[in-house]
């Protein structure tokens, strides 16, 4: 079970990263949503789609992990991964490849729909984090780069992952070719 400090930290990470993302994408035009810095780079719409899908993917994986047996033997290794989890947003120099299931494919055509989908997914995550009394530290599943993380760490990853992509959106917004208005 999360202690009060852990719960508040996770909730702050989730709320703050959502607020930052929404402040960056509010009011974008269709041309701005779909602008790409380069052919191999994601547009803002693709980033937000990925975030919405990733959120659902991870919360589903947390639920699955919590319905599996605890893996208490992994607890000793998880504390060493805290710096990796907390540094995820700032580590943009290290490229990570999105899982196939979370890559953008144009699931939502409208920016408002994308924003709403992300908000709804995040609201479900926040509600879960606020209410759960499960032992999140005793259940694990693997991160593509960090290996096994416990379910508490995965909740932190959701906030850090959003912040990481906020930095990417900020890069796009600063691009000299970004459409104006």
Give structural notes.
The chain has 181 residues and is mainly alpha-helical. The chain has one domain (4-174): dinb family like domain (Four Helix Bundle (Hemerythrin (Met), subunit A)), CATH 1.20.120.450. Helices cover 57% and strands 4% of the residues. It contains 7 helices and 2 strands. The protein has a two-stranded antiparallel sheet. Strand 1 (140-143) and strand 2 (147-150) form a beta hairpin. Helix 1 packs parallel to helix 7 and helix 3 (44-66) packs parallel to helix 6. It is elongated and about 50 Å long. It starts with a helix and ends in a 7-residue tail after the last helix.
Summarize this, please?
By secondary structure, the chain is mostly helical.
Keywords summarizing the entry:
mainly alpha; two-stranded antiparallel ribbon; 57% helix; elongated
């Amino acid at each position: 079970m999360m202690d009060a400090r852990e719960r508040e930290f996770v909730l702050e990470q989730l709320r703050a990263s959502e607020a930052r993302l929404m402040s960056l994408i509010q009011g974008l035009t269709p041309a701005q949503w779909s602008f790409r810095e380069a052919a191999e780079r994601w547009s803002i719409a693709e980033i937000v789609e990925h975030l919405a899908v990733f959120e659902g993917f991870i919360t589903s994986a947390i639920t699955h992990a919590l319905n599996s047996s605890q893996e208490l033997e992994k607890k000793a290794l998880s504390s060493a991964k805290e710096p990796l989890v907390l540094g995820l947003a700032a580590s943009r120099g290290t490229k990570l490849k999105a899982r196939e299931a979370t890559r953008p494919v144009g699931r939502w055509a409208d920016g408002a729909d994308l924003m709403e989908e992300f908000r709804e997914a995040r609201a479900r995550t926040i509600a879960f984090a606020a209410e759960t009394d499960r032992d999140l530290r005793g259940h694990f599943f693997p991160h593509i780069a960090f290996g096994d993380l416990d379910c508490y760490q995965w909740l932190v990853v959701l906030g850090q992952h959003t912040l990481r992509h906020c930095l990417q959106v900020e890069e796009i917004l600063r691009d000299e070719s970004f459409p104006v208005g």
